[in-house]
């Protein structure tokens, strides 16, 4: 099967964010979606964008933290396995571990992709009117690739921050936060409006 331009954008944003491409066989892969209990609507929205891949209903799961004892409640849904997703896995998991590819600037071309990535891993700090895009456990070079791709394709300038145990993040100061939010605003689901600056000025 071939993915549409819209589906590719959503897939790119998802894989950069919380999605996981699981290898199944030598050439195939499937997409696993997992979101917290309060974001079930978001998971259902993602799955609905790929009607030929996702069938059935998501599963409700609970995971207990071994140290704190806290219980994390979340939903999971997995797609069918296809060679098309296998190709994307080879791109994002060249050695079995997810990484930001050198060719990101060629993949992250749609504002929808950036919006999905932000809905997954973005954070808006309302007091200072700045935003972060958490990248997780990537290398400094991968973080620079992400920063450069966003600046090249959308003209949005950020800085790489080392958040230590949280990994690297991209920091968007006030003016750039306005720019980014205006770029992705039309794609943001209502449940994530809290991640947007509602002002049109810094």
What does the model show?
With 202 residues, the protein is of the alpha+beta class. It contains seven helices and eight strands; from the N terminus they run H-E-E-H-E-E-H-H-H-E-E-H-E-E-H. It has helices at residues 5-16, 40-48, 83-92, 104-107, 111-121, 140-154, 174-184; strands at residues 20-24, 28-36, 59-64, 71-78, 122-125, 130-136, 159-162, 168-172. The strands form two sheets. A four-stranded antiparallel β-sheet has the order 1-2-4-3. A four-stranded antiparallel β-sheet has the order 5-6-8-7. It is globular, with a radius of gyration of 17 Å.
In short:
The protein has 7 helices and 8 strands; from the N terminus they run αββαββαααββαββα. By secondary structure, the chain is of the alpha+beta class.
Please specify the SSE layout and strand pairing:
Blueprint (H helix, E strand, L loop, with lengths): L4 H12 L3 E5 L3 E9 L3 H9 L10 E6 L6 E8 L4 H10 L11 H4 L3 H11 E4 L4 E7 L3 H15 L4 E4 L5 E5 L1 H11 L18
Antiparallel strand pairs: 1-2, 2-4, 3-4, 5-6, 6-8, 7-8
Helix pairs in contact: 1-5
Search tags:
Endonuclease I-creI, four-stranded antiparallel sheet, single chain, alpha+beta, 202 residues, 2 domains, 7 helices
Distance between the termini: 44 Å
- CATH superfamily descriptor of the largest domain: Homing endonucleases
Beta percentage is 15-25%
Structural class: alpha+beta
**Would you state the CATH class of the largest domain?**
Alpha Beta
Helix segment tally: 7
Number of strands: 8
What is the name of the CATH topology of the largest domain? Endonuclease I-creI
| Chain-averaged pLDDT | 93
**Main sheet?**
4 strands, antiparallel
Stretches with pLDDT under 50, minimum 5 residues: none
Domain module count = 2
Helix content: 25-40%
Overall form: globular
